[in-house]
Amino acid sequence: MEKKEQLYEGKAKKVFATEDEGYVIVSYKDDATALDGLKKGTIAGKGEINNRMSNRIMQLLEKNGIKTHFVEELSSRDTLVRRVAIVPLEVIIRNISAGSFAKRFGVEEGIVFAEPTIEFSYKNDELHDPLMNSYHAVALGVATWDEIETIKSMAFKINSLMKEYFLTLNVKLVDFKLEFGRLPDGTIVLADEISPDTCRFWDADTNEKLDKDRFRRDMGGVEDAYNEMMRRVFGDK
Ligand code: UDP
Predict the structure, then answer these.
(1) Residue having the nearest C-alpha atom to atom 7 of ligand 1
(2) Ligand 1 proximity of 122 Cβ (cutoff 6 Å)
(3) How many whole angstroms from 70 Cα to the centroid of ligand 1?
């Protein structure tokens, strides 16, 4: 399928229509933002890495019974996906304390939780993605109770599958963000992307950060970290 008109341009991706209204093409950019959009830059090669890595993980999840929007990788940056209505919740799963969790609760990074945690943020840039609990989401019509139950159980299953997979690459899955969408018949599917932009990855031996925190925190070695994750996921490439 070919790209037709651009429907949307986000911070890291563009979305194009196709001849079939049930499908869109996502095109990954090298642009990066952080700190609520205050910090902007580019990470050379990121678009290709995130596209290919996200597709690989979506396929792994599909094999394990998770429904996703993924259809077909069209090129190094472009992927055909099902058109969905995004549920405006950022679903965050945490296995180890880091980032905003560590800040909010005044604890250090690196506390390994006995059980993973889940939280939702309302996806709204103007409001700076405020935390939202499931009662708030239902009250505002963001999702139904059934949808929230589905999203929670899918998110924890995705966490188990990804945690195990990344450990085989000697990577700890610290935390990550998911987004879900509705197909026209109402089925909830995993959407958006899974990449070093949306996950915290630490080397299992050294705890070296292999993700976007290197960009957020001006740590240097940003491209190297993305390339290293790519190498671990795809072998020698
Ligand atoms: N995250 C994301 N997009 C966001 C906010 C967070 O992909 O807009 C991811 C982030 O990469 C991390 C996890 O969600 O893996 C938890 O992020 P946190 O709440 O700690 O926020 P941050 O410290 O990144 O602001």
Answers:
(1) 198
(2) no
(3) 22
Question: Which one of 1.10.10.10, 3.40.50.720, 3.30.470.20, 3.50.50.60 gives the CATH number of domain 85-221?
Answer: 3.30.470.20
Residues in contact with 67: Cβ distance below 8 Å, sequence separation at least 6, in sequence order: 187, 188, 189, 190
- What is the Å distance from ligand 1's center to 206 Cα? 21
pTM metric for this prediction: 0.97
User: Which architecture does CATH list for 6-82?
Assistant: 2-Layer Sandwich (3.30)
8 A C-beta contact, residue 7 and residue 15: yes
The span from the CA of 141 to the CA of 134, in Å, is 10
Give me the sign of the Cα torsion angle 56, 149, 178, 106: negative
Task: Per residue of the chain (237 residues), give pLDDT as tens.
Answer: 899 999 999 999 999 999 999 999 999 999 999 999 899 999 999 999 999 999 999 999 999 999 999 999 999 999 999 999 999 999 999 999 999 999 999 999 999 999 999 999 999 999 999 999 999 999 999 999 999 999 999 999 999 999 999 999 999 999 999 999 999 999 999 999 999 999 999 999 999 999 999 999 999 999 999 999 999 999 964
